[in-house]
Structure formats: C-alpha cells, structure tokens
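Final report, closing paragraph on structural work. Over the funding period we assembled a curated collection of sequence-structure pairs, and we close with a single example.
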Amino acid sequence: MTRGGAGSADAVPEVSTAPDTAAASTIPSSLFIRFLPVRRSSQYRNARRAAPPEKVGSSSHADRSLTLAAYRAGMTWTRILPGLAAVAAGIAFTPAADAATGPLVQPLATSAADQQAVFDYWTPARIAALTQPSSDNPPKSAADGAPWTTANAVTKTVGRLFYTDHGEDASCTATVVDSANHSTIVTAGHCVNDTDLIGEHNAWNAHLMFVPGYHDGQAPYGKFAARYGVADATWLENDQQNGAKFDTYDQAFAVLGKNTEGKTVQDAVGSAQKIGFDLPGDAEVTQFGYPRAASDPAREGLPEYIGERLAYCTGQARHWTGTPDTPDSPDQWGTACVMGGGSSGGPRLRDFDAGTGLGTVVGDNTHAGFFAADGTPCDSGKTDGCTRFLAGPQFSRAVTEPLYAAAEKQS
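Its predicted structure, as stored:
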C-alpha cells in the first residue's frame, strides 16, 4: 500500500507527558554509537563503550518517556515543566507493566517562543561542532556509498535533523513525506526518543530542528522546529537489549512548525516523497543519509561522510534476521552500504527515479548487519570478509500507518 497526502480525519487527542523521575544524567557523546553490526549482547554493550564517537550507526535506541498505563486509560497528562523546557530537561519516565501499544504524540516546541528557542540553540558553531574532520582521501564512489550530486526532489525532501539526546548534541536524517498538514517528516525512533547508554532513562530528544536540503552549513529552504514527536508506545519500552522485540518500532514521525517565511516544509521545498506500507522488502532500493562516518577507511573524511553533504547507497535489499545469539525483528531490510552515524532515520526508497528524485519511502535506516559471501549473517562481532548492510524496519500498516495518521492530523 502506498500513501500520499490523506484527507482530513478525526483529530487525535494531544498527549502531554507527566514526569515520574528526575531528569536523566548526561552521557558523553563519545559513548553514543549507531549502526553497530549486532547488538544487545555484552559484546555489543562493550563495543559501544569502546567505539569512537559517531563511528557507526544505531542499534542503540529507546526511550521511556510516558506513563503508558495513563495512555491506555485515555487520560490526559499534566506537564510539570512548561513546553520546551520540559523536553530539554531530558525527562525520564517509568514504564507501566501493562503498557499500551500504538502512537504516542509528544508536544515539543509547540509555541512560537519555543520554536525560536530551538533556532537560537542551533548556532552555526553548534552545527559546525557536529561536522567531522576532513581527510586527504581521494574521491571514491560505489553502489555501497557515494555523494548525491543531482539537484532534484531528493535534495529538497531529505534533510538533516539536529537534536539533543540526554544532553549531547547529535544529528540524524529525515524525509518530508506527503501529508495532509504539509508538515510531516519520517525518521528513526531513536532520533526522536532515546534511552541512555545502558537502556535506561528514556526521554524525548530536545531541540529537534530539521533542515531540508542541508549542505555545507546552508539551509536553502529554511529551518523548521519540531512541534510534535510521534512514536509507538512499544518503542518507549526499548531497553537496547532485545532487538527482536523492539527494532520493528525504531521509526518515528515529527510534525514541524513553519520556517521564518511562514511556510510549511512541504510548501517550502515544493515536493514530498510518497510513503508505502506493507510493500515487499525484496526490491531494488536507494538509501539516503547525512553520515558523519564511513565504515570504509578509504572514504572516511570525504565531504559526504562528515555530515556536510547527502550520501546514498543503492542495490538489492536483503533481509537481515540477526544472528543465532542476537536475533533481530523479522522485518529488517537494507542494501550494502558504508554510511555510518548520522544516516540514522534516512529513507529507504523503492521505485526511485534518479532523474526526478522521487520514490516511495518503505523504511528507515537504523542499524547495520553483516553478511558473509554465501549470504548468511556473519557471527556476532565478526566483520572480516563480510559485507556491511544498512538495515531498518519495513514500514507496515500495523505499525507505521497509525503513526503517520497521528502525525498528519497535528496542525
């Protein structure tokens, strides 16, 4: 099933958060690593602690930010801290044992003052600090990673998503999808809501700002603060250990405010990608991102791997099932790709037209898996002689469509 914009529908009740515990403690950004090959084992946790900053993309995810029993009961929560300040504090919550499932809509920068605070926060210096050093490596392009250089719809609809995760600034990738409110982007769950390093202190990320068409510090279509975040309640239970249970839910939407010219993001860029649900994963795909690292040393430090320019990978998607000791969710797909941290949340497009830059978003980048030459998953922790694939959930009617519907109903 493929969806473009949908017509008006009954409003989804706004949900406010009610903090149960104190703000989460700050974790150094050097400990937050995305896109590790396999996860959740002690080997994985140790690798995350030892890995260099932003070296590889995510399989660390999660957040525990709402009292889900209240959501199941249909209650409206009262925010203890006002607006953006509550989110910026990294509020953590204790999950209910009988947690509900389905979309949760989290207010972020809903007022004009809160949105201006987001813009003020992201100074040129802060953004520049998320750019990795350049190298003297000569240009290198292949199907598993190359710069995207054609000016078309993809350079308008895909952009860089900046945010603060437990006190540390970071960036992901997100995509404008056709929606009734003209203000909806899709990204990874952990780009909107995350836990700390050990899978605790779930909190909604703060200072979310989307820059469509970002390149070299420029914002050609303006900047957009996130007014709402939308994630599945199950994602907020993620403990960073059980990928088989939680990786399906590493997907989220954000509803944006307007830029300084008073335009919605879809109107400002003049385009949007389609979104598809329950489409077969076994297809030719093109995946985009703003990586700050490359798994190939020969491409490390090139402009498209330091966070400044859009990169892509293209090829046949393969089904990633995890390994016997670390099984993954049954819906993880992706193609061979060297894009590392920062490409989280980027779109996996099928039926992509390289001339127009349009396709159908059928999934998002969340983590890596390694395959041996015979097509079987490599053992946990093994990379020699293996090919790295960039995987993520295949969008579905069961999980993704309700999130999308909840997002596009927000104004």
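The first strand starts at residue 2 and ends at 3. The two ends are 25 Å apart (CA to CA). We thank the funder for supporting this effort.
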